[in-house]
Amino acid sequence: MSATAAASRRQWPLVVALGITQVVSWGSMYYAFSLLMQPLGAHIGASRAVTVGAFSVALMVCGLLSSPVGALIDRYGGRWVMTCGSAAAAALLAALAFVQTPLHLYLVWAGIGVAMAATLYDPAFAVLVRSFRDGHRRAITGVTLFGGFASTVFWPLTQVLMDRHGWQAALWTLALINLLVCVPLHVWAVPADTRRAAAPEGAAPEQRSALGAILRDPSFYWLCAAFTGNALVFSAVSVHFIPVLQGQGLSIAQAAWVGALIGPMQVLGRILEFTFLARAPASRVGAIAMWLLPASLYLLFAADAKIGGLLLFAALYGAGNGIMTIVRGSVPAELYGREVYGAVNGAMATPVLIAKAAGPTVAALVLLAFAGTGSLVLFLAGVATASAALFSLTSSRAGRPTITVGTMGERSER
């Protein structure tokens, strides 16, 4: 066994630790909101729109901070970034139980957005790319396999806590889980920064030069646009899923049954990527995943309540969504190298997270402008098609400006 392979094997406990913390972070700060939204809004006398707006603010703050947080990890490592993020998540989730006004609600959720930026997938991916000289893509896939169970674990857990002890006690429990699980795991498992100490003098200016070259490359922004359109469509469909299927002639129960297949299909998509597509370039896998989204939506439009077509829609849609999480984490390293991965990945994540926050509102406006959910499905399919075409056209040309002294060495290792 080579020294590099042995080092990577020793680093796999990091994958398990980050996988566990991703389940907790996503489950407590993202998925639990859908259950806590109603009692939280009722407590402060706020409408559903106002309450959801606070969550959207958190996503936007997270997006805006993704690149600065990634740059911090590039320079100092991820141990204290992620540890402080989990500690802040614990404090802010506990504070959420005490909000009294919409202003308090928005301030706390803005703070949770900061904690999200320091703990969710993007900082975890930056840590993995720094830690795994080879095999970081498989490590990313491993962490996302854990993350796929966040809703499976935390939706029923949060509901049980609310039913037995009330929504405020549920929040305190979620805060305690972050404090007792995520904080120690990040301290123990996330490595201290070893690269910076070993880097030659002048490495930091070279990194800034490489990052500047990437940010001056037009294809970088076209790739960002492709990822952003894809994320907007997924976000819009996830929120309006039940009404769209009802528009296709299904009952609420039938729509929920079809929707229940999407989660397992996401996990299955990640398993397929891990087992059969791991040797393919991430950009090629990304093109496949990108095209699965419009294909699934056109199929949904044409299914007309036929159960076979709807099941195939759920399979394609779920698998594409599951694989896209891996692609989003792997493509920046493949195209632009590892030295400035955190900043580059964070810069790509900024419009993606903002699109996730805006997607449901955009879909609602389309529904207002055009009668019928069929028009919404066609609109989203059109956006998804444009995003897939843009990704396919630009991914093969992206990354050329980054061939510098630092990144040439990185590319030769891959």
N-to-C SSE series?
A: HHHHHHHHHHHHHHHHHHHH
Helix/strand/pairing category: mainly alpha
Going by CATH, the homologous superfamily of the largest domain would be: MFS general substrate transporter like domains
Looking at CATH, which topology of the largest domain would you report? Growth Hormone, Chain: A
Low-confidence stretches: 196-203, 402-414
Describe the main β-sheet briefly.
none
Approximate helicity band = over 70%
Which of globular, elongated, flat, extended, rod-shaped describes the shape?
globular
Radius of gyration: 21 Å
Number of domain modules: 2
Percent in strands: under 5%
CATH class of the largest domain: Mainly Alpha
CATH architecture of the largest domain: Up-down Bundle
Query: For the residues shown, what is the average pLDDT?
Result: 85
- Give the termini distance in whole angstroms: 18 Å
DSSP summary: helix tally: 20
Total strands = 0
Short précis:
Keywords: Membrane, Transmembrane, Transmembrane helix. This is MFS transporter. The protein has about 425 residues and is mainly α.
